[in-house]
Amino acid sequence: MTTIRQRRVGKGTEAAEDQPSEETNVKPDGKILPGPPGGKLWSILSVTVGGIVAISLGLLTSVYVATLHENDLWFSNIKEVEREISFRTECGLYYSYYKQMIQAASIQQGLHGLVYDNKTESVRTINILERMNVYQEVFLSILYRILPIQQYLEPVYFYIYTLFGLQAVYVIALYVTSWLLSGTWLSGLLAACWYITNRVDTTRVEFTIPLRENWALPFFAVQIAAITYLLRAHLQPAQERLTLMAVFIATFLFSLTWQFNQFMMLIQALALFILDCLDMLPTAKVTWLYIIQISGLLLVCVLQFFNSMILGSLLISFNVSVLIARTIQKNLKKGGLLNRLGKLILHVLLVLCLTLLINKFIKKILNLESDEHIFKFLKAKFGFGATRDFDANLYLCEEAFGLLPLNTFSRLSSTLLFYVYGFVLFLLTVAAVIVAFRNLSGSNQVHLKDKMEEYTVTLKPDAAYSLVHTVLFGCLALSTMRMKYLWTSHMCVFASFGLCSTEVWKLILKCLHLYTSQRTQVIKYSIPIITLLYISFKFWPGIMDELSELREFYDPDTVELMNWIKSNTPNTAVFAGSMQLLAGVKLCTGRTLTNHPHYEDKNLRERTKQIYQIYAKRAPGEVFGILRSFGTDYVILEDSICYERRHSRGCRLRDLLDVANGHIMDGLGENEPDLKPSLYPRFCEEIKKNLPSYTTHFTRVFQNKTFHVYKLAKHK
Prior knowledge:
Pfam families: Dpy19. By secondary structure, the protein is mainly alpha-helical. The chain has 2 domains: 162-547, no CATH class; 556-712, Rossmann fold, CATH 3.40.50. It has helices at residues 37-73, 80-85, 90-103, 107-115, 128-131, 135-146, 155-182, 185-197, 199-202, 212-230, 237-257, 261-277, 283-303, 308-311, 314-328, 337-366, 372-381, 390-396, 407-414, 417-441, 461-479, 484-499, 502-511, 517-548, 556-568, 579-589, 602-611, 620-629, 639-642, 653-660, 683-686, 692-695, and strands at residues 3-6, 551-554, 574-576, 592-593, 634-638, 698-703, 707-712. The strands form 2 sheets. The chain has a 5-stranded mixed sheet with strand order 4-3-5-7-6. The chain has a two-stranded antiparallel sheet with strand order 1-2.
């Protein structure tokens, strides 16, 4: 098991100014008049200073996480095999393709090896570029080969520095989004500081570097920044076209780098759909965003050799359904309140039915079953019946796919982030309900509006989108802990925007009958500055202590196993074992695997369940037959799985296998009435006794405190 131990000593006050309001100096025909020369100069100066601060904070964040990674593992001092082992589980699998491309005789040969891969899944040839999102590894390996940096920078450093560099892009995008929403770069500064001080809950890049989300989320943040700018009023046609292009590029890169892109963009599409139905976004811009999502995903589909899982995604079905339904219901936004509500209900039902029909039709035509495990998991998670499905239970029992722990909120509250976020969320939700009701009832067109203008509640389209975005992704994070990073980073943006927003403070002061323009300006700058000072004084010493804490990578058992495999087994040997360990075997040794952690394939899921019978109660002959059917030469057994204590009874891997096989689970506790005792003992325990029924098929060739490797006999 990989651990981190304490390292042994070895050898060796800002000015912030609002951007001009969107409604300032606007002619009745929509054209924008030039402002006074002094104001324009001040605006240029403010943008320049804000831009410099954004870039500086982005680079500092990049250096910060890189330093934490180095200090945690002593990465520069450990051996190559230890560096590779530090890329745990699926991270190691993805990095192995970068390594494979680097070591190939030529770029063409490297690409051929990925398109016709027969080492990732034994007795099968698969297309890695079609199955997995590894174009970033391909691009990076090609870049490393063609740039004159081989003598100065090792491939692993080029890879991890690129990921840490993307953190700079991420922070800059969050900064810009908050700036665009509030009109002041002070808001961006606060968002970036919150992102850094809440690092435990906003990113995990320093210890899961190659994870797909670490590639994708910076591009998602850029896309949100571009959408925020797109939703502003009075954009020139050229500005709008350039912004749409930026949205498309960011959407495409986000989709290309993460297999879960379709689910994240479906939530985004739902946000657009809700706001469009409530007349809170310009319909033309929403239509363009639907089209961009579809076209970006289809382009990725082409690059991934027409991956059927993309074609069968709910996102494409939903977006197409919305566009069709809108064409059918042309007068959706006309009429009184009851009329509008009736049309809206019919519209939602029509979109829902069309989505299900189109999706069902596509999956039927393509015979698509790659994502069925996700829907089984969701069905079981939200209480629509218990399941014995091995794949669904595997997800249900993982902490990362459970509910968001309550201690998350205490950590976020310690930086004041959650308190401010909750306050701003409440205010803007009330404002959104008022605006939505006014839009649906048509009361925004009444003649008394001019007299009541002082009391009218407004919500700009970009703020409305940010509100619904944070609510939907908040629901996702609350239900699935692994997805919290999509929410917490935007939480920083949303809270800082609210704290620095003229509209928010204007609304509060008007409710308290204390509103003046000067008072609003004083509060919108003083409160964020006080918050920044509080964060700095409270967390700066802790950050310095964190950066000075030196540790060291320590996993001698895994290192010993990998070195033994490289020295004592042929290059063509096929290994079976747990998904997590085999990813490291492929990266460190280049040996062929029977299964791996990239779980988005039905055949692989079936294969993994069969391989995992090594931890079930099965006869030795049955296990041998299963392993040989996948061409296995060696099987690796892990004590940490065979005698697992990390999960409670019912969630241990051996329990999941017992239930799936219809057997009673080990230990004290209840069992379902139809489960029966197995006729055989647990394979991983019994094989260590060297009984004749086992030694006929299996010979132990390696053993340490954690791992046991057995060689399979050649007879059938």
